[in-house]
């Protein structure tokens, strides 16, 4: 699949035809930024929702779609860059369009979201951008502007409802320097508690030397914030077009590749205090780790960078509870530790968990104290939520 440049591409060597000024102005404008920064500084920024007889329940995995940014980017035809659309049948595209239409209020209207949170028993959401709003396919400076607008709106939401939300932002990973700059602004000025990143950058692994993201990972560690690793379908999915496979199989597959790269290419060894949360229970790797440990023992090409068994680094990661099966969730807790599993819903998508509290409650042989950790204590620690 060939990808075209994002409009407006600013590289004169590409000889693109002129772009209408209205499109350029719309995607570069960030009207909310000053307001967001002022509002965030004025707010306490520390969720203190009252609960009775239990700790706060925190959802580490939930999304917000910024409708203003989506509308401004629409003339650039973002669908041409979306693997979930490229590698799909007509029926899957039709179902996805209906889902986006039906769930638009949950994605973008906070009052609707709050009612759903109450119904699901969620006190606080660590709200992060909807994956289609990573916008890594855009020209870097444009991507930086879009990320800033997405982050500003999330900061406004947090400032308006500080007892119900903390924010996870986005950065333009297509340019490492701009990514570091927006990371610092999002954390130090807007007060966001972490950054959500895709599991690849335009089809490149996160550790690809051409991306130069080592400085980004190092700065995330220095700022001591959460790095939420979330896929946006598989990018080479010619065999995954049927039956929504590019989500059902492709999402955990791309997470597996991303985590494996972070381990085998030494990112987690060089940044041992990096606080990584992997969506969808860690993909396949968290449940089939022994094969990579065996490969590390058996083959010299599997230990060119790291010397310790790969699972040593996997133990440093955190995983959400989205397993759809209590036995699998129990296995994750037993293998990686109760302090490394966090409640997640994937709200408001149809592949999410609509009863996350009940899911945790049904796990056999789990103490009340451990359930409370998973439901909120672990996330509160990572996100520095004052309870």
How would you describe what is shown here?
The protein has helices at about 20-30, 35-40, 65-75, 85, 90-100, 105-110, 110-120, 140-160, 175-190, 215-225, 245-250, 250-265, 265-270, 290-300, 310-315, 325-335, 355-360, 370-385; strands at about 60-65, 125-130, 165-170, 195, 225-230, 275-280, 320, 340. With about 375 residues, it is of the alpha/beta class. An 8-stranded parallel sheet has the order 1-2-3-4-5-6-7-8. Helix 8 links the parallel strand 2 and strand 3 (about 165-170). The longest helix is centred in the middle third of the chain and has 21 residues, at about 140-160. It starts with 20 loop residues before the first helix and ends with a helix. The model is unreliable at about 1-30 and about 40-45 (pLDDT under 50).
In short:
By secondary structure, this protein is α/β, with parallel strands linked by helices.
């Amino acid at each position: 699949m060939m990808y075209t440049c994002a409009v407006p591409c600013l590289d004169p060597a590409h000889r693109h035809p002129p772009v209408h000024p209205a499109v350029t102005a719309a995607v570069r404008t960030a009207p909310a930024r000053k307001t967001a920064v002022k509002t965030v500084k004025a707010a306490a920024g520390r969720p203190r929702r009252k609960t009775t007889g239990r700790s706060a329940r925190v959802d580490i995995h939930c999304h917000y779609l910024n409708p203003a940014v989506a509308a401004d980017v629409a003339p650039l035809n973002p669908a041409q860059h979306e693997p979930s659309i490229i590698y799909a049948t007509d029926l899957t595209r039709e179902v996805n369009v209906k889902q986006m239409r039906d769930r638009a209020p949950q994605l973008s209207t906070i009052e609707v979201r709050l009612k759903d949170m109450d119904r699901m028993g969620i006190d606080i959401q660590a709200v992060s951008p909807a994956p289609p709003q990573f916008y890594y396919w855009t020209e870097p400076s444009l991507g930086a502007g879009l990320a800033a607008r997405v982050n500003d709106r999330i900061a406004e939401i947090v400032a308006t409802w500080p007892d119900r939300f903390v924010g996870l932002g986005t950065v333009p990973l297509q340019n490492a320097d701009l990514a570091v700059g927006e990371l610092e602004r999002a954390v130090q000025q807007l007060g966001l508690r972490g950054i959500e990143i895709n599991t690849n950058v335009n089809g490149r692994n996160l550790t690809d030397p051409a991306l130069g993201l080592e400085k980004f990972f190092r700065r995330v560690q220095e700022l001591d914030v959460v790095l939420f690793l979330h896929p946006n379908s598989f990018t080479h999915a010619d065999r995954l077009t049927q039956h929504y496979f590019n989500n059902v199989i492709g999402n955990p597959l791309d997470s597996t590749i991303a985590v494996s790269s972070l381990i085998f290419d030494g990112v987690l060894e060089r940044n041992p205090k990096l606080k990584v949360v992997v969506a969808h229970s860690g993909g396949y790797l968290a449940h089939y780790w022994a094969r990579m440990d065996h490969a590390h023992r058996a083959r010299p090409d599997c230990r060119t960078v790291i010397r310790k068994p790969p699972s040593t680094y996997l133990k440093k990661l955190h995983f959400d509870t989205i397993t759809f099966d209590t036995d699998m969730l129990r296995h994750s807790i037993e293998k990686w530790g109760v302090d490394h599993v966090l409640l997640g819903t994937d709200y408001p998508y149809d592949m999410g968990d609509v009863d996350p509290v009940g899911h945790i409650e049904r796990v056999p042989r789990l103490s009340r104290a451990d359930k409370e950790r998973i439901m909120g204590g672990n996330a509160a620690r990572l996100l520095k939520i004052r309870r």
